[in-house]
Amino acid sequence: MKKLVILMMTALTMISPVEKETLSKKERKFAVKYLESSMKDIFKSIEKLTPEQWNYQANSDTWSVAGACEHLLIAEQAIHQNITQNVIKNEKFRVIVPEATRVSDQTVIDIISDRSPGKRVKTAPPFEPKGLVESPKDFIAKFKAARQINIDFAKNSQDDLKAYYLDSPAGKISAYQWIILLGAHAQRHHGQMKEVMENQGFPSK
After folding, report:
1. pTM for this one?
2. C-alpha span between 129 and 62 (Å, rounded)
3. Beta bridge partners of residue 168, listed in sequence order
């Protein structure tokens, strides 16, 4: 009997970590890779920009690369705070969404990253750039730190991220999909930065 109890306890110990796993290894790997790649793509595009290129605006109604980067940093920090400190700690966001009406991960990426005509919207005032990011180097350091927090969250969180839902521009999506949204959001504004840099008036140096 004593040996049987020990065997049962050992089995439970081995099973326990699996039972606690709220995201699959594949989901975690995808989220982490997407967050990392979308960040690195931006860094590669902006790291050598001169101050004139960094601050160039095609007109008063559009953002500079600096403005787009600062917006990304503000959103990165605000979304992380909302998801971790509000959504997954509030039972009103724990809802059952019928499988037939769930938004797929790919749909989140497609909608959020899309900057085609008719898909562009003005951001809310709290997310407007305020000139607080001084240079590409300054942005890279600050955004890398902010994104690493989200990468670590995607890697390690044991919260039930697929049980909590919040409205987004892509529809009602899970907390896990909000992590994916951060990658798509970076991809979206990377496209915006490229548009600025491809503008005819963009400084050559």
Report:
1. 0.87
2. 11
3. 171
